[in-house]
Fold these 2 entries.
Entry 1:
Amino acid sequence: MITIDPVRDIRLAREFMATPIGHHSPDLQRLLRQFRGEPVKGKYALLTVRPNREWMLIELSGEKGVPFTVHADQRFFSMAEAERAVFRMRWKRYTGHDLVLDEANA
Amino acid sequence: MKTLAGYTDRISVAPGERIRFMVSREGGEAVYRARIVRLISGEDHPGGPGLIERPVPSPIDGAYPARHQPIHVGGCAVVPPGRDLDRLTSFTVQAMVWPTTPGRGRQTILGTWNAATARGFALELDEAGALALRLDGATVGTGVPLLPRAWYLVAASYDGRSGAVRLTQQPLLRHAHIDDGAVVKGRMAKGWTPDKGAPYLMAAHGGAGARPREGHFNGKIARPRLANRALSEAQVRAANNYRPPAALKGAWVGAWDFALETPTTRVLDVSGRRRHGTLINLPTRAMIGPTWQGLHVAHDWPSDPEGHDAIHFHDDDLYDAGWQTDFTLTVPKDWPSGVYAARLENGHDAEHVVFFVRARKGKTKARAVFLASTATYMAYANFRIMNTREKYEAFQGSLLVAGPEDVFLNDHPEYGDSTYGLHSDGSGVSITSRLRPIVNMRPNTPLWAFAGDMYVIAWADALGYELDVITDEDLHREGLRALAPYHVVLTGCHPEYTSGAMWDALETFTHRGGRLMYLGGNGFYWRVAYHLDLPGVMEVRRAEDGTRAWAAEPGQYTMSFTGEYGGMWRRQERAPNRLVGIGFTAQGFDKGSYYMRAAASEDPRVAFIVQGVGRDDRIGDFGNAGGGAAGQELDRFEPLLGSPPHALVVATSVDHTDYMLIVNEELIGLHAMIGGTENPNVRADMTFFELPGGGAVFSTGSISWPSSLPTNNFDNNVARITKNVLDRFLDPKPFG
């Protein structure tokens, strides 16, 4: 299994932030498969607030009948914005570090 | 938030016919308002016309009391009450069982026990998953849990004169170090007498309160027998033969053979006592039984009934919710054919109960008809995969988006799952009904089914085409007759599920001069069966190959409703390529891409298709489904699978990402070149061919195609090509 190194892999985070939806390098794809393959319980997802215009963050429960956890304060107005935000949260979950992108060294 | 749910008794209705609406309140105010709307589009999207619903005044307009109507799930069989049961003071009850959730609560296998009265007998699995006999309030058990997914002979006998009880739990297969068999002798009260008028149930017991039944058993049952005396151990074993022995003839209350009348809901008593039973909520029939052997006998139940003599019961089986009618509409004679909905509101999000209105027989002037993919809508009915499958987001290649329907479904497991789901015991859902609310056959749902299809309706409306609507069910029931008034059939974005009758009708239509516009992807993929007698229910077996949400188990590839082999059409020498020139090749849900014209687009035979589209123009690099017309699921031209040799590939999609993956039936051995940047078969081939009778087929090969129609107010090259084709297809001049 791959491990995600917050220093070595920062270039993948930069790549994702530049193009959250679209062509990705093989290394970024592999990292995203880890992020996206996390268990259903607690998996980040979106809930439509206004169709195709506004979404809020939820966490799935992984079990029929058990409600989703709704983060009504975290709203997004584009899918790209939501993908970036969830990437940051998963980066923190996996590496234990906030994602800090120093644009000067990008 | 959804607070109302509803369904109709029929999905397709003609002017002058009646349709009933059943509604339940799951929240919100105690009164709801209902009116009928004609749906023109299916999605609120900044890149389109928005959700267009035109009010259509009708006598049902008004306010109604919003009442909760429950759904009682769980499969079982019921043998009606009778004097034989009323007089049963000694008995033996036995069956072969293959439990799937032993240890998950008390589960009744067979008996008359009723939770409301705590009276009767039941052969059951207790809380720990061990066999037990319940007699009124008392139990005797083996204390030895059964293993899941293993066959056992289970039996209990009770002698009323002595109170002697014997329990038999005999595994078919023995394992070293595991002792899961038991014979237990005990004693219960003497002189037990039954309550009069109790039915005999299989896979459940009578319920308390409002629930008609509870204690549902998960797993397979075969060869259930009920004798009117305490049989010996040897007699129990003899009675377990597929054909119950003649020597025990006088002992039977009933001996049922689940292999008979498989396509029906009847379970037949073969003892001669004629104590036939009825299945509730369509548990899965034609399941392999304890003696099936794949090695030497047939894999299909019509050839080997004895091997397929089990029924798989699930505690979440569901056929007909059975709700009371809220209102009935007689469709006025002057309503045009189209997509309609009862719009229901009680203070929260409006619910749309969708139905389809056909043209009046013999009265339509339209020459084109939209074939609403109701088989697809039923297959995906109450699709709830996102909250159950760990790899679903990785499969999609993008964040999962839940709509209000997903929240509602998650809050209400009793509304049942789709044929992509699993029953609570992990077995695949192979039967789906529309006699329950289908909360994702609604506006503002994902663009790979109903909402995507609505862009074809919206486009035809915007351009002023007369376009009638029929459904898959109409086509299945009536065959070619359903298409008789029309020159052109337009499909939706995802006509994935096809019965034999539907396939034959479409193929004959095109061979007799008809024109078919296949405006989607992943079409004509799974073979399905509609029930021969019961309305509104469909079966699919995820057999053998293909992209499957679950895999049918060996010996269970043949559909119980009809005896037809299930699974992919491709595995039955009817790959979709034969019908529409192309077949399923790739899927990915991160973004859409676009097409470029192919060399064959310069052939004069297809000049009418590309008229107005430049040789190097990007076709469909826009749209509401991920920004491109080539997306979600793609089909390609493949002569080896039956694409006609004279078919022309007009355009091919390009520039797919690595989240667009080749489908697994294309890989007979694994390798890593499966994504859009490496695998040349990851593409959509827009294809055209003529038929000898003057007919023609045009196929786009992408689910996302219709969702690109509305861009720039329906003025774009996807809309242009679609219009070019429809205009020529409406022209009766034969293709040669």
Note: Chain A has a mean pLDDT of 94.
Entry 2:
Amino acid sequence: MTITMERPPGRSAAPPPPGRRRPLRSRRDNLAGYLFLSPWLLGFFLIIGGPMVASLYLSFTDYSVLGTPEWAGTDNYERMLTDDPRFWASLTVTLTYLLASVPLVQVFALFLASLLNRGIGGLTFYRAVFYVPSLIGGSVAIAILWRFLFEGDGLLNNALGSVGVDTSHSWIGTPDTALGTLVVLNVWQFGAAMIIYLAGLRQIPAELYESASVDGAGRARRYWSITLPLLSPVIFFNVLMNTVGAFQAFNTAYIVSNGTGGPADSTLFYTLYLYQRGFVDFEMGYASALGWALLVLVAAAAAGLFALSRRVVFYGDER
Amino acid sequence: MTTHTFTARRGRKAGPPRATNPRQFLRHLTLIALGVVMFYPLAWMLGASLRDDGAIADPGVWPGDGFTVDGYVEGWRGVSGVAFGRFMLNSFLVAALCVVANLIACSLAAYAFARVDFRLRRLWFALMIGTLMLPHHVILIPQYMMFRELGWIDTYLPFVVPKLLATDAFFVFLLVQFFRAIPRELDDAARLDGCGHLGIFFRVILPLAKPALATTAIFTFIYSWNDFFTPLIYLTDPDLYTVPLALRSFIDTTSSSAFGALFAMSVVSLLPVLGVFIAFQRLLVEGIATTGLRG
């Protein structure tokens, strides 16, 4: 440092003094940084940002694939809110699905993670078994299986019949129960959340439990006062991710209902409705408006969860 | 070689002390019972795929008397005059391209974010994080129009090009986290040996980041293999169909008597994902635990 101080600042072309290497290097870093980042930058502007702006514009137009977009002001949004029962139906289906399955997934995942956490034999095996459904649950193959599981002469009713409960109720073909089968399918995939909970549970120091036991806290008390508060950031994370995911559920509803969202729109997920408007009816302007409405909904849900987290999530004293 | 992001988790077993034996037994019983209930449908599908179509409604798991591999033979013939093997090859091709594209593009971007000090880095990083939870549907329509305009319908470009441009922010984020955990002293040492950023990237960061790269590859493969929506809107030519789309057309063309073939090909379609899971179980589990990826 002293050496740099003694040298006059300035114009010698000779090897730059150590203190001045920083700006030079920084220019090189600038170039390198942007070169490394260039694919992402292109993607950000061409694949994400540009289309986002374009879809905002399209959402204010009337546009079928064949014609050109015609400015329609807020028509699409007005129609959505005041004159489109199927929009409300799809919103109801998605929210019902979300509110039913996200908490259930957490309950199952947390329960299983707690069972597996206390030094149980065969942990790797159990973990694998419960995780497999998460891996394949979104596939078309499993959606096909689900259809056969819950049809009137499907597996469930046959299994029920063999234990003496005779029913030909088509779980998937009846509006009241169709969505329920998809909730079950989502809950069936609790394994990924379970693994995240397991990792979270392992971070909780054993001493806390020991000293609580010494103080006379029972199992339930320890769970309520130690496990849940210390795990709350992980719970929040899982709820957030599962919520964002639930808004975008598509595959199973499509396969189970043959792309219709039936029976009686009871499995008309929001994304399925958007798909129908855009790629079946070719109402690209309206579909874009639905896309932006979804963005607003997801953002609102995330903001709501973050606000809630500030009240209930425990981040420890040191953070 | 694993860096400490991964090893830290296996530090020491925390949690309450071991329970007593009857409790232990009860826990195993609960776990096994639940496991059986969860796996019953899968086992049944496997059984049904090996069964005569007449006995398809049988709730039993074992194929029994009606045992036949006709479903596999019939299903492998494919649909719309295209063999099922072709669909599998298409799916493998798309998945492989996506994996390569993601590995290249996401690691390049992650290196810039984690290791290079350039202007506006914080801004770009914040924007990248912002795209993490962006619902794909908000960009769907213009993207579709753009790709259609470019003549990319019935090509695999709509699958691969977005990945080549690092739009899978989750993997960029995962790699950034991992790269940051690699000690900077290694960069400095490499720099003294005359390495520039490219040298550091290829000789220091990438070799040390193998676990994270493997996680990226595995999850990209699985997502891509299961992807139904992209082929649904971009592929119309049956010759190009990937497996999920082929299964959809199977349903449409399946008469009420050919369930064996439908189930057989459903089982076949699950095998690559299950294979990947069995081969890379540890990496998968760690990948989820550290990043919250869903699988």
Note: DSSP finds 15 helices and no strands in chain B.
